[in-house]
Amino acid sequence: GLIPxxxxxxxxxxxxxxxxxxxxxxxxxxxxLALAYALKTVLGTxxxxxxxxxxxxxxxxxxxxxxxxxxxxxxxLAAEFLLVVDQFEELxxxxxxxxxxxxIGLIETIVGMPQVRVVATIRADFTAGVAxxxxxxxxxxxxxxxxxxxxxxxxxxxxxxxxxxx
Length: 166
What we know:
- The chain has helices at residues 2-7, 31-43, 50-59, 63-74, 90-93, 97-111, 127-131, 134-140, 153-165, and strands spanning 18-22, 81-85, 116-120.
- By secondary structure, the chain is mainly alpha-helical.
- Helix 2 crosses helix 3.
- The longest helix is centred in the middle third of the chain and has 15 residues, at 97-111.
């Protein structure tokens, strides 16, 4: 329910945010390619194929800032950019170690960008893996971490009912 609430204006200005959700392992274990597909789908990024954009993101972490910054400055509708990395644990289960390290470097760059917010969802049994990676540990330190317990019967019912009504 986070993204629908933000789209409804739960935070000041959040109804004008552009959001992109992707999973790091959804494109054959290449999180750069997964992000490139998500960016291309939402922002267009004309003139570049997903593979080219993925390679640019891999080689130049500030390439993300260029793509998103250019899009935000050209859009009268969007105020900020929300990047949702769903199933963040896929970085540990589906992504090679060297690629994981490169992608974490990109995430570090993205987190430092103005007008960009990052949300990562991760299963509780993988939080220890995050703590073992110094760069990720630094990123999560002092930031909003929200632990969610398993949903009860009423919450499960609403998870089905509300999307069906929409």
